[in-house]
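ping. complex inputs:
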Amino acid sequence: MYRSHSCGELRTSDINKEVTLSGWVQKVRDKGFMIWVDLRDRYGITQLIFDEERTSSDVVEKAKTLGREFVIQVKGTVIERESKNPNMPTGDIEILVSELNILNESHTPPFTIEDETDGGEDIRMKYRYLDIRRNPVKDSLMFRHQVAMKVRNYLSEADFIEVETPYLIKSTPEGARDFVVPSRMNEGQFYALPQSPQTFKQLLMVGGMDKYFQIVKCFRDEDLRADRQPEFTQIDCEMAFVEQEDILNIFEGLTRHLIKDIKGQEISDFPRMTYDEAMRTYGNDKPDIRFGMKFGELNEVAQHKEFKVFNDAELVVGIAVPGGASYTRKEIDKLIDWVRRPQVGALGMVYVKCNEDGSFKSSVDKFYDQEDLSKWAETTGAKAGDLICILSGQGNKVRGQLSALRMELAERLGLRNPEEFAPLWVVDFPLLEWDEDTERYHAMHHPFTSPKPEDIPLLDSKPGDVRANAYDLVLNGNEIGGGSIRIHDKETQALMFDHLGFTPEEAKEQFGFLMDAFQYGAPPHGGIAFGFDRLVAILGGQETIRDFIAFPKNNNGRDVMIDAPANIDQGQLKELHIQLDL
Amino acid sequence: MYRSHSCGELRTSDINKEVTLSGWVQKVRDKGFMIWVDLRDRYGITQLIFDEERTSSDVVEKAKTLGREFVIQVKGTVIERESKNPNMPTGDIEILVSELNILNESHTPPFTIEDETDGGEDIRMKYRYLDIRRNPVKDSLMFRHQVAMKVRNYLSEADFIEVETPYLIKSTPEGARDFVVPSRMNEGQFYALPQSPQTFKQLLMVGGMDKYFQIVKCFRDEDLRADRQPEFTQIDCEMAFVEQEDILNIFEGLTRHLIKDIKGQEISDFPRMTYDEAMRTYGNDKPDIRFGMKFGELNEVAQHKEFKVFNDAELVVGIAVPGGASYTRKEIDKLIDWVRRPQVGALGMVYVKCNEDGSFKSSVDKFYDQEDLSKWAETTGAKAGDLICILSGQGNKVRGQLSALRMELAERLGLRNPEEFAPLWVVDFPLLEWDEDTERYHAMHHPFTSPKPEDIPLLDSKPGDVRANAYDLVLNGNEIGGGSIRIHDKETQALMFDHLGFTPEEAKEQFGFLMDAFQYGAPPHGGIAFGFDRLVAILGGQETIRDFIAFPKNNNGRDVMIDAPANIDQGQLKELHIQLDL
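pong. complex structure:
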């Protein structure tokens, strides 16, 4: 037996016990006559003491050879520490070592195994197994497990059944790019890895499973933006005989439970907002509502004077920045530079300082008088001491720019407290969105999303105005979940495919099995999927998902630790009936 | 809201309640003036009654249009049934319907949605979503979920952390064939889908995770024998600072817990048997020990006479078939035909009838006297009334043949009771096995399995005799789990690769990351993996895994429901830098 206790559990109540511990050497302090070693495992750190007077000399000699990250086993007696460390759970005791067994040596690790490491991202990824020894990564992975367990137990208690859907499925041209898998046994044919179990979970509803969930890996072969992974994990859910309200209630319950259970925070009913309202109020379909700075649309009160920039704009819109009236000219110029960066893309910014004395000072005083500016303040909710930032231009474009500015300012003002949780349902998403590249409408969510029945007549006349029974769950400015009530009859599904530009033959080839299924008694159904990596990161108070994934890939989709993807040999290609085409 | 209750929950205590139910029409009995409909959902069946005297005529008319598997919603009153059905949980009540809403019609399903269906395997797979509506499949999937939850909660309670390992990894030539995934972003390179998370779980141990598990999909591109799937699910586990004994105890605990919790059966300590003993006693490394018929090796008592067949044989071995003395000549001839089938491959069979009067009658009376035969009876444990079946030939070959006969006879004799559970640890597996095709030794388990230290000197002289720290958990004649203590130092791992025919360069290219990791403080570690599909099936009392998998593939690796794999278009191939080579 390698150990009688872990390195995290011994206390003063264990004093005088003979124990065996195993773990890694975190630190060695060699005072000559006395050596202290911090011994680490997943559960904590225990201090070992080798004392010339009380430890046999060969053991002391062996202890002198120990280096960082050596794996050792020790036997010894639990004794009281002379100088206790109240910051460590085991800080009251130490182990007087009688026997030392070096289980494995270690090269000097390429970065320090400490909470704050000297290792950069690249080296940490290459030696991920060392990075995982660090508390921030180890704790994140353990936290992920706890969240997964809570989700599973909650949904299982609520009668959901976790069903494993297949990973080797069929490629579909709709949506993002698929990863594909050549079939050896079916010459010239390919499986695809699922972008989500969407059709399978719908078939489970047709199959009467009633309430389904799965914590499941999904795959998208997309060019990777920062903090995206080619393989990612979803909490995938579907329910039969439900309306949107049922889904919202159940998964609001799950989310509330997680926040309560993990963070101890009680959240009352989640606010709901239509997509249109979210776009108008926050310029964003996943608004962070932990703070205000709501948009004030200023067309009415800003397009009546000679200021051509505003008069020519489709939309003039502003936000009030709390306390911003004190910004210096230089600070404001920097803000203007910030919104003009290509990533944001505004042409310029108008501002109004709301002075403490009730007067206003703006960058467009030439065109607008105090009464105009006071109306702007009223519309944007600006108070004395605030700064109003105003952008103008084409509707949703300028909204996006102002949203970026709003988020940036909130960050600078410290309004994005990671320990505060502000969930929000955004509902009534558009069914379709126009794609500039292909010059046609795409499904905003996916082709199985049901349109609101009352909007179906608009499908031909104003497709962009058709609203869907689709909803997103937003948490602190991140979309953590999204779903919809699905189409469950063949006719509507065929109509939908038609509007998405599928010929009936294409629809049949790609999704014939689903449309067939709809003819054998498909119940009304709907569902939701949560991005699990993101959800865990946010609940963990982090912005990036990478430390919550054991073995993430880099932005080129490479696993730099195992060096994958890699070449495969000619024989393997031949068996798969493919050859390279470089 | 589609329903106030499920179809499984209403009881006499609910009488007079106004309820709303939704579900599928299981059965319609139309007596003209009265119509009964069995309404089904996941939770059960509730009887609906449409009564000309109490139900409005338009509702009755609509009810007359209902067909099997229509999806309907009804409102009505819970009333007491006139003729109760004690076999149904809802059998005391029925719903007097006041409102009927047809949510979706259904074509006549291609097979009956009943426990005993008229649908063959092929049609059931094509319409799997209908098959899942049948209780045997639905219950199997729900059972699978329950087992998974129990496993997760048990291991989580025992401090195991579920860590998701990547699905897009690197192809390795060792072991079975990989499924590969061409990388679009890394031209000419491929990911592989994991055959198991083996190296990653070992790296997690190097990373200090201490106790890991994962219920995870694995992939093998093998020619599929019956009841094998190209994608299958493992309970994958690994622990650091453990010896074989620790692993056996922990996972014996898990298995005992499952059998107790699911089947209510207390199992005491699992027996343990070496591989050698299992082969000698049962001719099989996964013996079914629910019944006896242990092998008796007869060389000593059968090779002293003039019977050339036995004298020329490496091994003469027999089993006693309980009650077999009463078999007719014809029945015995059929047994002989059975062992001579090519699938078994014996050349013939010698038998001895142990008569009730203590005398023996054998097919080799010409060569052996009663005293000889009585020794055979003693060696095989045959009692009066038994039949001794004896095969002879090359050692392990004849053991396999006799094992097949033993299993077949046990099946015929009803000794394989699916509700009885007889687990067994088989330990001390050989490290290497000789492969006739490649004429070299392969790792019997995998190349990371540690040899028993005392056997390492045999690696050069008698590689086949080297025993591994490897073990299998056998349940009712099925290997449900297997694992080993791993190598955790670079030198032994290099030695192992060398003996498996890897050049140092190949070893470095394929597994360099693992050998590197071993140089940075790798702890001793080991683990086990359970075949989850099989485990669930056996616990569910079934022989085949297919009904415990929601969407299984057929023996050609095809999903006949979605028709995958399938062709992909030229543009997609081009993006992936491959072309077909047919």
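Chain A touches chain B through 127 residues (CB under 8 Å).
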